[in-house]
Amino acid sequence: MLVVRELQKRLGGRRVLDELTLDCEAGTITAIVGPNGAGKSTLLSILAGVMEPDAGSVDVDGASITRQRTRARARLGYVPEAADPPPHLTVDELIALVVALRRAAPLSPEVREQLGIELLSHQRIDRLSLGERRRACLAAALVGDPALLVLDEPTNGLDEPGIVALASLLEARRAAGCAVVLATHDTRFAERIGARVLQLSAGRLRDPSAT
Known about the structure:
The chain is an alpha/beta fold. The protein has helices spanning about 40-45, 70-75, 90-100, 110-115, 130-140, 160-175, 185-190; strands at about 1-10, 15-25, 30-35, 55-60, 65, 75-80, 150, 180-185, 195-200, 205. It has a single domain (about 1-85, about 145-210), classed as 3-Layer(aba) Sandwich (Rossmann fold). Helices cover about 30% and strands about 25% of the residues. It has a six-stranded mixed sheet, with helices on both faces. It has a four-stranded antiparallel sheet with strand order 2-1-4-5. About 40% of the residues are buried.
């Protein structure tokens, strides 16, 4: 589903990613952990096609994120840590905009219920709490039934019911064959959803349980 080979990226003269390799199969959840500044958000931005790597390759469901950007990005949903949708839109207007841009089917009632979107549907984005905005952005990312979800600190701003709902949603997506890659400081949440945990250190990923 996701194949990353020898990814390199320098920022401010520092090598953030150093020939990084990653494989994520369908029906799996991978959690990237590491301290602030380790490069987690940079990695996810490249996986989502938002930032260009200096070298290396990223393939999403068989499509190159650099050479076949439109096809690859049609297969993924991305929520950055600082997601900032148009503030004047309502939640339903945001979702409808993404549906139109992707030429996709509307969200299923089941997904809307899992995320609690019905209660927010007519509220403007700029009147939502951080956790509510993140739920709205996650709903938008799920438009088109993406094969890959890329989520940067998805639990930020969520209360316990929101975290429970997110865990349930991700488990359902995994069961449906979706691959999920998330960056998080919340290792308890990663354990809760049964994620494979990889630590980003010195520009590369390693399995902390293998040391």
